[in-house]
Write a structure and sequence with these properties.
heterodimer, A: 268 residues, alpha/beta, Rossmann fold, 2 domains, 4-stranded antiparallel beta sheet, 10 helices, 10 strands, 23% strand, B: 257 residues, 6-stranded mixed beta sheet, globular
């Protein structure tokens, strides 16, 4: 597998403070990678670096494009970003207008915009929301809309910074399923998160703590170490918690992540 | 304490809906309420003494108005009937109740983590001695180490101080774990109001309304499909003990076979 996103020797100087000293990370193309980190671990700072909000020179490379002053616009067309900034505001009153705006910026003619919006509405099941005022949506639906908007220009890399944070559990489940479909179609997803129940589809998981990568591995390797996850302050999802405890008592031979797997192992 | 909910707007028609929120009970509300319910409870005409209601919203840019924790407490002092010399003690006991130390008073708010901000907001509301506390998505923002603090606060508010606690959440796990009774609303209509355990036994009804069952209930339900009738519990460790008990029995049966 080829390297798609590469952060090499990242050191960020903000005023007289230095962050991420010689930080390295490589992500393969067409993968779902999660970076889990507690509050204050550097998740949002990393997102800002990857979104080119904090300036860096040639330390980030995406699909062969080095992120620097000259390439920043080209780089930005390749990424979609959802942040967890609760001050994030929408530009328009209606959902439909909010969706149309980026398409208009891409130079799409009206009939193509309408067609595209109809297809988005069908895929994400938001047809009933199109004519609603964004202000009237629940926080969960606003979060869903932010992910849809980040994907509208068909980026190759989607960066999620605690994007599922205030999303209802059924909406989260729905969007994770949709992202899996998009991954199959070639999207690379970087899920930077503090919610462990959003990382089960990951090809690889990294632990970010105090601006350093403290570990990486497959989900089984990372999520089995409950004590470490607790020390880092994560809330442990129920099925992960119970299956780890039953493993401790030798009722199970390994960790299971969802009820169907757990059922199969417990009551064969 | 009965709160009558009625809306002037026809499209938010909640007229004729009286909800009796009892002291010493934690009531959970699930549904599309995110603006309607808190607004209606707080601004309700029939409930004039609204200062006794505290609403702990999600963190937003207006949650804190000053830069320092102590300033935030002194900003709201004018709304509280307390002598100057007693106020500091009241602040410290509120901080203590949410699991934050006195030293937080000196902290700048922008140095606090989201968990700490959420607990500080809780302490700011508690210092006003509210009768009714409404809290939106209580587990949101909280690191694992503060989950215990939150559960303890809610338990104390209910048991020790007999407060009326209303939890707004669309997470059935949260409602199952924290509440005594649940109200499920859809399109501003109450679909169900019952004890938490009875509500989450309405499997077909919940599925029909696209409401996810709590993980623990789903687990107990699957166990039942395999003839394991686990005693209903909200506590993970108790559930583990139940599973272990069955596993031991099954093991003994297999060995005797």
């Amino acid at each position: 597998m080829e390297s798609f996103l590469e952060i090499k020797d990242l050191t960020l100087k903000l005023g007289d403070k230095v962050f991420f000293e010689n930080f390295n990370l490589t992500i393969e193309k067409n993968s779902f990678v999660s970076i889990i980190g507690p509050n204050g671990s550097g998740k949002s700072l990393l997102t800002k670096v990857l979104s080119a909000i904090l300036p860096t020179t040639d330390m980030v490379t995406l699909d062969g494009i080095k992120l620097n002053k000259d390439n920043v616009l080209k780089y930005l067309t390749k990424i979609g970003v959802v942040t967890n900034d609760f001050n994030q505001e929408f530009l328009f009153k209606k959902v439909k207008d909010e969706l149309a705006y980026p398409l208009l910026n891409l130079g799409y003619p009206e009939h193509k915009i309408n067609k595209q919006i109809a297809s988005i509405a069908e895929f994400y099941q938001i047809g009933d929301l199109l004519n609603k005022n964004i202000d009237d949506l629940t926080i969960s639906l606003k979060k869903k809309l932010l992910i849809i908007l980040a994907l509208i220009h068909e980026p190759t890399l989607l960066i999620l910074d605690d994007a599922f944070y205030e999303m209802d559990s059924n909406e989260q489940k729905f969007m994770l399923e949709k992202l899996s479909i998009l991954k199959e179609k070639g999207l690379t997803i970087l899920n930077i998160t503090s919610k462990l129940d959003t990382v089960y589809n990951s090809n690889k998981i990294y632990i970010l703590n105090r601006l350093q990568i403290e570990g990486s591995g497959k989900k089984e390797e990372i999520l089995e170490d409950i004590n470490k996850l607790l020390d880092l302050g994560f809330q442990i999802p129920f099925f992960l918690d119970i299956s780890n405890k039953l493993k401790y008592y030798k009722i199970l031979d390994k960790t299971y992540f969802d009820l169907n797997e757990l059922e199969g192992a417990l009551w064969k | 304490m009965e709160i009558k909910l009625h809306s002037k707007k026809e499209k938010n028609n909640l007229k004729n809906m009286n909800i009796n929120f009892k002291p010493g009970v934690i009531t959970g509300i699930y549904g599309d309420f995110f603006k309607t319910i808190p607004d209606m409870i707080i601004k309700n005409n029939s409930f004039s003494n609204y200062k006794k209601i505290s609403y702990i919203e999600r963190l937003n840019k207006d949650t804190f108005l000053t830069e320092k924790v102590s300033d935030e407490f002194y900003l709201i002092k004018k709304d509280i009937n307390v002598k100057e010399e007693e106020y500091l003690d009241k602040i410290i006991s509120s901080l203590k109740m949410v699991g934050l130390k006195k030293s937080y008073l000196k902290r700048k708010i922008n140095t606090l983590s989201k968990s700490e901000k959420r607990l500080l907001d809780f302490a700011l509301k508690l210092v006003t001695s509210p009768d009714i506390i409404i809290i939106d998505e209580p587990f949101l923002y909280l690191n694992n180490e503060y989950i215990f603090s939150l559960k303890k606060i809610l338990f104390d508010l209910k048991e020790k101080y007999s407060k009326t606690v209303i939890i707004l959440s669309n997470d059935s796990n949260t409602l199952y774990e924290l509440t005594d009774e649940v109200i499920i609303m859809k399109d501003n209509i109450i679909l169900i109001r019952d004890t938490t355990s009875r509500t989450f036994r309405e499997f077909e009804f919940l599925e029909k309304n696209e409401i996810l069952l709590p993980d623990m209930v789903m687990f107990m339900r699957r166990a039942l499909n395999h003839d394991e009738k686990l005693t209903e519990t909200k506590d993970r460790d108790t559930l583990i003990k139940e599973v272990l008990k069955y596993a031991k029995e099954t093991n003994c049966e297999t060995q005797s076979d």
